[in-house]
UniProtKB/TrEMBL annotation:
A Pfam short name: Methyltransf_23
Gene3D superfamilies: Vaccinia Virus protein VP39
Record family assignment: Belongs to the class I-like SAM-binding methyltransferase superfamily. Erg6/SMT family.
GO molecular function, one term: transferase activity
Name the UniProt record assigns to this protein: Phosphoethanolamine N-methyltransferase 1-like
InterPro entries in UniProt: Erg6_SMT_methyltransf, SAM-dependent_MTases_sf
Keywords from the UniProt entry: Transferase
Gene designation: LOC118414654
């Protein structure tokens, strides 16, 4: 798939980027009002389990004041801002889509954090990351979308200082696909790539790039989370339609039902955390 097609498919999935402004309005904020990071944290984390994996990254990476951190696929910058706020480190928030990037920049600026969070826009594969620039790399549910994972891990390795560390939270495949229903759900979820690696595949890819790797499986939590999220959206559909409109809600529900099937009914997909050190 060409880079342009990849981008287009991502844009369709993340087309509701302006939702955060509706959510802020509900909280009583007006356009351009200054914001607090602590008000945003329930709204701007576009990955499972809210702040918990970001706190896990801070702890496992041992992020210190002044450290330089790259956030791969930063979305609207939720994890980047929280990390910089919590640890006083410097974050580069790298994001593919111009709309996500623009909203991320706006929120960072309104939080008064442009000195600690720098937003860059582009495909991570072609973004100039520099050599030995970062103490740490983090990423939350993004790497699945990158087609050339061997190249990505080699580039991230080169961008880290000696002894630097990477943390990422990611979906992985738990078994082989067994029938056409499972394949259709997986294809819809994968969006712009053909395959989902297993946990062992990811470990091997990281080791091939030169990293020393530890893995924390979290698949039971993925199963619980996706089921609970589906119940919530299914039961409260009318309320969400009133807030966000039918197109947005139906688009999300399709993804929410699919991930519930993949992580529960089919037992095909789980997820976990990878911690790796440059040696
Ligand atoms: C599930 S969202 C997670 C966003 C963010 N990490 C968070 O947790 O709030 C995935 C993000 O990855 C971005 N993305 C996908 N492919 C990318 C690529 N090749 N380079 C940079 N970002 C990418 C998407 O545009 C989207 O914003």
């Amino acid at each position: 798939m060409s880079q342009e097609d990849h981008k287009l498919r991502q844009r369709i999935r993340y087309r509701h980027v302006e939702k955060i402004y509706k959510d802020l309005e509900e909280l009583g904020y007006h356009d351009n009002d200054p914001l607090k990071v602590t008000d945003l944290i329930t709204l701007d984390q576009w990955h499972y389990f809210g702040l918990e994996p970001v706190d896990a990254a801070i702890k496992l990476l041992d992020v210190r004041e002044g450290a330089r951190v790259l956030d791969v696929g930063a979305g609207i910058g939720g994890a980047s801002r929280y990390l910089a706020h919590k640890t006083k480190c410097h974050v580069t928030a790298a994001e593919l889509l111009p709309d996500n990037h623009r909203v991320g920049q706006d929120l960072t600026s309104r939080c008064g954090m442009t000195g600690s969070v720098k937003h860059v826009c582009g495909d991570i594969i072609t973004t100039e990351l520099g050599k030995q620039e970062f103490d740490h790399v983090m990423s939350f549910q993004v790497i699945l979308y990158v087609e050339d994972k061997p190249r990505l891990f080699r580039q991230l390795y080169d961008s880290l200082k000696p002894g630097g560390t990477i943390f990422f939270e990611e979906f992985y495949r738990l078994k082989d696909v067994e029938n056409s229903d499972e394949q259709a759900a997986l294809d819809f979820f994968l969006l712009c790539v053909n395959t989902m690696p297993t946990q062992q595949d990811y470990k091997q890819l990281l080791e091939d790039a030169g990293f020393q790797v530890t893995v924390h499986d979290n698949s039971d939590a993925y199963s619980e989370y996706t089921h609970g999220r589906w119940e919530n959206w299914d039961q409260q559909r009318d309320k969400y339609v009133r807030l966000y409109g039918e197109d947005m809600v139906d688009g999300w529900l399709k993804l929410i039902v699919t991930t519930k099937k993949l992580c529960n009914e089919f037992g095909l997909v789980g997820g976990g955390r990878f911690l790796a050190r440059k040696v």
